[in-house]
Design the sequence.
């Protein structure tokens, strides 16, 4: 049995499993209709996503849209959609362009999503309103026999940590996987094309051109040529997929589909791997935010950028950063050196500048040395305010532009050096130091 056949046998739902998920989706649709009538809302249910397109893996989620007439007021759509969702599955409210409800029903995770029933694709569409058109396009245009090729590509993306357009992953959506198989014809042909991709690669389906986009990867949406289906894909994720494609074609293995989980290293292992680098580590640790990933991860990246900018303004050199969320959230910065010399060279104005007198008046008595001229410019040696990076972060953390909810949670601990070897930090350190690709574990 080939590797692809072996993988497909593990990931493809059986006929009985397909009948069950479709029966549950049908039951949900009927409940949406009956519940909407009770609150006098006009709603048309529509099954969307991978189940509707027949490209789902085992244990799929069910995505059911509740389509309201275009004439419905936005506030009415939101309120009625949430009310219907809560009555049927309870669950928890989530927020995208329109709020929706996520919960469990008959053993499946279900998203009940209110949206407008839009019939003209030339209108400006939100990502939510565009989804039904994506579903119909794939149902009509994915050739018979290619659904299994999509399944293989999705599982490969999952195994190589490239799958998911959400902010946490910044990767390939299911719809993008479907379009890639349509464009190239099979799972393996997608990889054969991808091994030569560069950052800035632009793709489209024949007969569906679109405009240029600035993102690392472009795939023009055949439903809306003004949209890039691959806009979520970061340069890091793209490079990882290109590398995975090359490695798999060179040495195929089921590990690309089902990698071993990363095991947290012990404190002794961390000390051995990190060596002296551990002395230059700072981690900002705080309780996890009780928000969805698409809200949390942009704020974590913004916060980490603010911390590195603070350090670099004071001339601390950043070597590597990482974000890790387990029982706690860790924003980790590795510096070239935790400590800097007591004095620093401070640049002044050019010798012919009108600001020279002001500079000299300030620094004749305020510097460690007398001002001096070098290459046509005044300089002075001055004392640093911050000699250690961790001290700087502890003192100034609340003064920098962290993500809104990160800042508001307010319970920060700045941990550095060997203090990071405590048990609660080992997963984050493992994530930082273990740079192996998923299939290499």
Sequence:
């Amino acid at each position: 049995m080939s590797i692809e056949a072996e993988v497909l046998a593990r990931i493809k739902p059986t006929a009985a499993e397909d009948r069950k998920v479709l029966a549950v989706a049908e039951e949900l649709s009927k409940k949406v209709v009956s519940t909407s009538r009770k609150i006098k809302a006009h709603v048309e249910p529509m099954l969307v996503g991978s189940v509707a397109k027949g490209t789902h893996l085992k244990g799929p989620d069910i995505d059911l849209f509740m389509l309201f007439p275009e004439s419905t007021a936005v506030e009415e759509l939101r309120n009625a959609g949430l009310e219907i969702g809560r009555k049927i599955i309870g669950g928890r409210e989530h927020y995208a362009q329109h709020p929706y409800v996520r919960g469990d029903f008959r053993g499946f995770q279900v998203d009940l999503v209110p949206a407008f029933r839009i019939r003209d694709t030339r209108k400006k569409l939100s990502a939510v309103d565009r989804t039904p058109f994506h579903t119909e396009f794939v149902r009509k245009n994915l050739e018979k026999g290619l659904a299994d090729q999509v399944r293989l590509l999705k599982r490969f993306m999952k195994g190589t940590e490239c799958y998911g357009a959400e902010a946490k992953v910044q990767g390939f959506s299911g719809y993008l996987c479907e379009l890639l198989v349509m464009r190239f014809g099979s799972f393996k042909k997608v990889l054969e094309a991808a091994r030569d991709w560069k950052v800035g690669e632009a793709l489209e389906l024949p007969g569906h051109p679109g405009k240029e986009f600035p993102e690392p990867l472009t795939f023009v949406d055949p439903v809306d040529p003004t949209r890039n289906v691959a806009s979520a894909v970061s340069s890091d994720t793209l490079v990882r997929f290109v590398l995975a494609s090359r490695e798999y074609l060179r040495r195929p293995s089921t590990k690309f589909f089902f990698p071993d989980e990363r095991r947290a290293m012990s404190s002794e292992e961390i000390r051995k791997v990190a060596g002296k680098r551990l002395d230059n580590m700072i981690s900002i640790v705080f309780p996890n935010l009780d928000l969805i990933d698409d809200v949390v991860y942009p704020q974590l990246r913004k916060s980490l950028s603010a911390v590195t900018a603070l350090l670099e303004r004071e001339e601390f050199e950043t070597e590597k950063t990482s974000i890790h969320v387990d029982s706690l959230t860790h924003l980790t910065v590795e510096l070239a050196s935790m400590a800097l010399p007591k004095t620093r060279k401070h640049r002044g104005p050019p010798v012919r500048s009108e600001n020279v007198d002001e500079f000299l008046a300030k620094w004749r008595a305020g510097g460690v040395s007398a001002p001096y001229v070098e290459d046509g410019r005044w300089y002075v040696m001055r004392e640093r305010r911050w000699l250690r990076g961790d001290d700087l972060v502890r003192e100034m953390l609340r003064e920098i532009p962290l993500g809104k909810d990160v800042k508001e949670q307010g319970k920060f601990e700045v941990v550095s050096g060997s203090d990071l070897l405590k048990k609660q930090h080992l997963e984050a350190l493992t994530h930082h130091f273990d740079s192996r690709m998923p299939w290499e574990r």
Observations:
- The chain has four domains: 3-141, 147-256, 267-339+387-440, 343-383.
- The mean pLDDT is 94.
- Residues 15-38 form the longest helix (24 residues).
